[in-house]
Design a protein that fits this description.
Helix content is 23%, strand content 34%. The chain has 332 residues and is an alpha/beta fold.
Length: 332
């Protein structure tokens, strides 16, 4: 089994942080978003990954080489942002006869990927889905009585399904998948100018493939600032919270859950809940909640909520909600 990870997008909804950092390497709860997915793949035993890169692609290549030297990594460049089908098509030369896991890094998920190892031979693949109430915001999966996909409908106005497509797929019949992608690419782009991978799945189903839907326990958006902060709060409450013994807290009130990393120095103020302070952060008389502060930032006399502060930033006297990039300087 191999994995395909498309990550060529520019991450405009996470600006200014993605002006210098690729979207999959933006941090949540002290780690790059992509690292959570990579660890899931390694746990499953996947050691060969095709990365579809574009914007700041060299940064991604350096990160993978440094942090995951044991995997076999292939990098292909998506020169034109023509959609998910176009991205996965670029992985075809590396697919061979292997099964494929296709994962998008806009979200994190609680999913049983081991299903890909135990799937009955009658199934051509799996689409993981999350039941939602606000189904009009998503592409939803319509199934038959056996849980097999019959079609995917984008942002339906009628409640035909509440199973939202989360962008996590396992495909066993890769020959039919790429035939479907070729069909989609030949048919012309949608009005958005993009070619959608879900249309290739529809082609597979229309040609006799059975694609199973499988539930996820959780689905956490990392594609925009407010959603990233919500995901940060979830991770702190469930797995990533804690205070490093190498942090210094002097006269400050700490409201759990928080993540306070090594080298952090806090003097006075109130920190938390739902705050990540990365390594080396210095806080003086700061009140911060529901926020992420990047490594080595220095904040003095601030009162912040629902904020993202980049690494090495310096803020003094700031109040309210901010979204500032690394090395920013704001003094009020």
């Amino acid at each position: 089994m191999k994995a395909v990870i498309p990550l060529a997008g520019r991450g405009t909804r996470l600006r200014p942080h993605t002006l210098t950092t690729p979207k999959p390497l933006v941090h949540v709860a002290g780690r790059p978003v992509m690292s959570y997915i990579m660890d899931d793949l390694l746990e499953l035993g996947v050691t060969e990954v095709v990365f579809v890169i574009g914007y700041l692609g060299e940064v991604v290549k350096d990160y993978v080489a440094r942090e995951y030297p044991g995997i076999t990594a292939h990098f292909v460049v998506q020169e034109v942002q023509d959609g998910t089908a176009g991205a996965v098509k670029l992985a075809e030369p590396f697919a061979g006869d292997d099964d494929l896991l296709i994962l998008f890094v806009d979200t994190l998920f609680d999913a049983d990927l081991s299903l890909a190892r135990s799937l009955d031979d009658s199934w051509a693949g799996v689409i993981w889905a999350k039941e939602v109430e606000d189904y009009q915001r998503f592409g939803v999966i319509v199934t038959d009585e056996d849980g097999a996909m019959t079609r995917i409908v984008e942002k339906p106005s009628e409640p035909i399904s509440k199973l939202a497509n989360i962008g996590l797929y396992y495909i066993r019949d890769t020959e039919l998948l790429f035939r479907g992608i070729d069909h989609v690419l030949a048919a012309g782009a949608a009005s958005s100018g993009e070619y959608y991978l879900t249309d290739a799945f529809q082609y597979m189903v229309d040609h006799g493939a059975r694609i199973r839907t499988a539930p996820v326990g959780g689905w956490y958006d990392c594609g925009k600032v407010d959603a990233l902060l919500e995901t940060n709060a979830h991770l702190l409450a469930t797995s990533r919270g804690g205070i490093s013994p190498d942090a210094v807290v002097d006269g400050a009130e700490i409201v759990e859950p928080v993540r306070i990393e090594a080298g952090v120095r806090i003097r006075g103020g109130q920190i938390g809940p739902n705050v990540t302070l990365e390594a080396g952060v210095v806080l003086e008389s700061a009140e911060i909640r529901d926020s992420i502060v990047g490594a080595n930032a220095h904040l003095r006399n601030v009162r912040l909520a629902d904020s993202m502060v980049g690494a090495e930033a310096q803020l003094d006297g700031v109040r309210g909600q901010v979204n500032v990039a690394e090395y920013a300087e704001i003094r009020v």
